[in-house]
Amino acid sequence: MLPIPAVPLAPIAALGTATTLEALGLPDGFDDGDLLLEFAPLLQPPYLLAGLGLAVGVVCGLTFSKLVQQRLDRWKQDRLAMLPLADLETVLPWTGLLLGVTLFLGGSLQVFGFASGAALLVAFLLSLATGGALWVQLVRLMKQVEAGKFKAVDFDNFDEFF
């Protein structure tokens, strides 16, 4: 790729519509596509970001699942309290899970042409809303189990989420 010489703007504006590469002082053999590539760099799609987010989400999700299963097993055996759920042991994997989902969704949206800031913001809001609703539902289910009033989960009824 040939270096692009610095061209002052005033002579370019004075040329009007009859601008040519020679008039701009560009070397022979210069392709005008090279000039466009300088202004619109083609970056590799963020597959690495989406893959990293998927890996973090799966690892943290499995960790969180195992911790909830251990709490349920301890409650079954010794009637130890399952709540409060919001302690450091369970909040860290849950936060990692939300971060992984955010990175995965954000990277995936960037692959389809969304700007990186907008994609990550939309992904963060989606994962926060979904994760918050699932956290509330999980706490309610644990309360029902402890009270002995466990019933089937109805995910179609949205007024039970909040």
Task: Provide an overview of this structure.
The chain is mostly helical and 162 residues long. It is built from five helices and no strands. The protein has helices spanning 9-15, 32-39, 47-78, 88-111, 116-147. The radius of gyration is 28 Å and the shape is elongated.
Radius of gyration using CA atoms only:
28 Å
Q: How far apart lie the N and C ends?
A: 59 Å
Number of strands: 0
The number of distinct structural domains comes to 2
Low-confidence stretches: none
Condensed summary:
With 162 residues, the chain is mostly helical. Helices cover 64% and strands 0% of the residues. The relative contact order is 0.10.
Secondary structure elements and pairings:
Blueprint lengths: L8 H7 L16 H8 L7 H32 L9 H24 L4 H32 L15
Helix pairs in contact: 3-4, 4-5
List its salient traits.
mainly alpha; single chain; about 160 residues
